[in-house]
Amino acid sequence: MSFQAYLDAVEDKTGLTPRQLVEIARGRGFDEPTVKAGAILDWLKADYGLGRGHGMALVHVIKKGTTIDSKHVGSSGSHRDESDTLWLDGKATKPV
What we know:
By secondary structure, this protein is an all-alpha fold. The chain has a domain of 66 residues.
């Protein structure tokens, strides 16, 4: 599953866009450098029922932003993505 597909699935599971979840996380201070991934994963599981894979996709965006490693862009592996920049504003508004 691509990184973007994980984020799209998060939207399906929660009803919130990844950007909305990132904003909620920031409001709770989860973007602070001292916050560990485990704390974010615990919150996402408790409040939204997200598992580790979907949660870690959001952890990346919360802690590191929308850019991902370009080694998967255009590759043929299962984690390939179309772009090194993730779309956070929802599947319905994603450019083609």
